[in-house]
Structure to design on (137 residues):
């Protein structure tokens, strides 16, 4: 029985969601809170699996695999307010599977992608993204 449990645990740790990840905080995204210059830490983690905690902004539509992660809870969706009202330190998240909106703090693990990119399907421009991500409560 112990052998079966150990094998199951080892298998779980080998899954992509539990692969070696680096911890990232919103304070690690830019050189300071007033800049859009990427920090050295962020640049060094590009293309790697990272985890970050934050809050999900209200979704663009009720279902889908695209969400926006923010440092603090927000009450508006990306297209519901003027650009000046939308926080700069956001992370666009492309989940493996659809997820319902969660109002509490969440942890997201995914592959970090940086640089200006337009999601042509959604019309959303992002600087920082997590691809192939998993949402953990």
């Amino acid at each position: 029985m112990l052998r079966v449990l150990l094998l199951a645990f080892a298998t779980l740790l080998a899954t992509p969601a539990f692969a070696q990840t680096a911890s990232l905080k919103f304070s690690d995204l830019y050189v300071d809170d007033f800049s859009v210059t990427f920090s050295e830490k962020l640049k060094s983690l590009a293309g790697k699996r990272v985890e970050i905690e934050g809050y999900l902004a209200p979704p663009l539509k009720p279902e889908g695999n695209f969400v926006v992660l923010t440092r603090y809870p927000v009450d508006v969706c990306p297209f519901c307010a003027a650009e000046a009202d939308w926080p700069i330190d956001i992370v666009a998240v492309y989940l493996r599977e659809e997820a319902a909106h969660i109002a509490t703090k969440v942890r997201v693990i995914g592959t970090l992608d940086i640089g200006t990119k337009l999601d042509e399907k959604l019309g959303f421009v992002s600087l920082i993204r997590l691809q192939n991500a998993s949402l953990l409560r």
About this structure: The chain has two helices and six strands. Confidence is low (pLDDT under 50) at residues 4-15.
